[in-house]
Amino acid sequence: MTKRSSAWIVGIFSFAVPAIAVAHVTVASGPGFANATQEITFGVGHGCAGADTYSVRVDIPPGVTSVRPESSDFGKATVTKDAAGVITAVTWQKDDKDALDSDTNYYKLTVRVKVPDEPFTTLLFPAHQTCRAANGTLTVVDWVGASEPLPDAGGPEPAPALVIMPARTSGWNKVKVPVALADLTSFFGDAIIVWKGNAAFSTNPNTTDMIKSTADVTALTTLQANDEVWVKY
């Protein structure tokens, strides 16, 4: 980042955060931060074919530690442990008296965890959603896939995905990217701007227009392993 390029971007503090993908169970709390303890919230956007969500089980992937779930208005949280006493899953169960006759509500389920020290990766939390119809019929949907299934091709529904970012501070951060990135939006979608030399990236339309209209500044679209960038949050 040059002195000239930093000058024209000073004062731009509004930015667009990418919308959360529409799905039944997603990570609704934004990105995780490497080697940090934080709350991860799962959003349950829909039930199953008109039936209300009755319980949700989220599998805890290896490397995630210090797991402490929060009970919610949805229902009580319980944990599943392996033989070594490690928490491998969290289940939120709705009380029968709170069951709804139809799929009308959005639910938030939160767990406090320590995110592994693996920046610029995506961590999957497989989820299992049980819905109960008004007549008591139960339906289970497994959200365990690594990506969106192709239309009419079958395959598992996508698992909730946590994008892991490096630790950050407000303002400018110098970051070394350990892996090649073809999609900067996934990892820098909440940044005000990203600079590499005289190339810049932003998801904010106004900032993007400034990048395009400024002489000697080009659009930054990809990064290679071990590239160093300046990121402003």
Question: What does the secondary structure layout of this molecule look like, with pairings?
Answer:
Blueprint: H1 3-9, E1 25-27, E2 32-33, E3 37-44, E4 52-59, E5 65-69, E6 76-81, E7 87-93, E8 107-114, E9 121-124, E10 127-132, E11 138-145, E12 157-158, E13 161-165, E14 172-176, H2 184-188, E15 193-196, E16 199-201, H3 205-213, E17 218-219, E18 228-232
Parallel strand pairs: 2-13, 11-12, 16-17
Antiparallel strand pairs: 1-3, 3-8, 4-7, 4-10, 5-8, 6-7, 9-13, 10-11, 14-18, 15-16, 15-18
- How would you sum up the global shape? elongated
Distance between the termini: 15 Å
Taking all residues together, what is the mean pLDDT? 89
- In CATH, the homologous superfamily of the largest domain goes by the name Uncharacterised protein YcnI-like PF07987, DUF1775
Spatial order of strands in the largest sheet = 6-7-4-10-11-12
